[in-house]
Amino acid sequence: MDHIFRNLLIRYQNYFIEFFQLIEDKDLIKEEQQSAAQKIKNYLESMPELVGDFDIFFSISKQSGALTATWSINISEDGFSVRSYAVDDLDEIDEWHFNYYSHTQEYEGNLFTDGDWDLFLDEVAEIDDAGGEKISCELSFKV
């Protein structure tokens, strides 16, 4: 894990924690996901420097008809990616994204400022199934 990667993880740590807490607050985590959920939470709170192959992924999705909107964070030895996107039967539309690639030490996206993160997290906070939408989460912790 290079120093830029590490510094970016620490810079955005509180946002990652808040995103995960929003997933927890929606009571979407199933019994079989509890172990991964606890490991992800512990990782986010202590942010240890990982070496070797690892992959940490957590997301929340909302499906309404053919449209699925997903908000996700993926952290691996290759870097990390934060995304918000929608997929329908025809296209995938990126809304928010922030990617860091450890092999080139470059990052890109439109999710840099505190205001951007507030909007991203507000979208997640507003997710509900009041309109009959299907809401789910996906969690993976491989270290």
Cα Rg = 15 Å
Helix and strand string, N-terminal first?
HHEEEEEHE
- Overall body shape: globular
Number of helices: 3
* Structure summary, number of beta strands: 6
Compute the average pLDDT.
Answer: 92
Q: Assign a percent range to the helix content.
A: 25-40%
Spatial strand order of the main sheet: 5-4-3-2-1-6
The low-pLDDT segments are none
Structural class: alpha+beta
As a percent range, the share of strand residues is 35-45%
Biggest pleated-sheet summary:
6 strands, antiparallel
Our measurement of the CA-to-CA distance between the termini, rounded to an integer number of angstroms, reads 14 Å
Structure description:
The structure is a single chain. A 6-stranded antiparallel sheet has the order 5-4-3-2-1-6, with helices on one face. Helices cover 34% and strands 36% of the residues. The mean pLDDT is 92. The protein has 3 helices and 6 strands, in the order H-H-E-E-E-E-E-H-E. The protein is an alpha+beta fold and 143 residues long.
Helix-strand blueprint:
Elements lengths: L2 H23 L8 H13 L8 E10 L2 E10 L2 E9 L4 E10 L4 E4 L4 H12 L8 E9 L1
Antiparallel strand pairs: 1-2, 1-6, 2-3, 3-4, 4-5
Helix pairs in contact: 1-3
Defining key terms:
single chain, 143 residues, alpha+beta, 6-stranded antiparallel β-sheet, 6 strands, 34% helix
Summary of the model, kept short:
The chain contains 3 helices and 6 strands; from the N terminus they run ααβββββαβ.
